[in-house]
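Example pasted here:
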Amino acid sequence: MSFTEVNVFGVYVAPIFLLAVAAWVVALGLRWTAARYGLLRHVWHPALFVFAVYMIVLSSMVLVTAR
């Protein structure tokens, strides 16, 4: 796949923007699940942990899309 601009309602956006939004939605769901089951209580810095999960999800999506 070539990373070219994507037309979203007449506005050209970079594909990384769409991947970042999708990764944010996935990370939001993972954060909600972790908070629901009390898993965030066991990490040292919850905000840093959530950011790291977001970066892992985003980089995984980029790697899968680029392949």
Q: What stands out?
A: The first strand starts at residue 6 and ends at 8. The chain has one domain: 15-66. The CA atoms of residues 12 and 40 lie 38 Å apart.
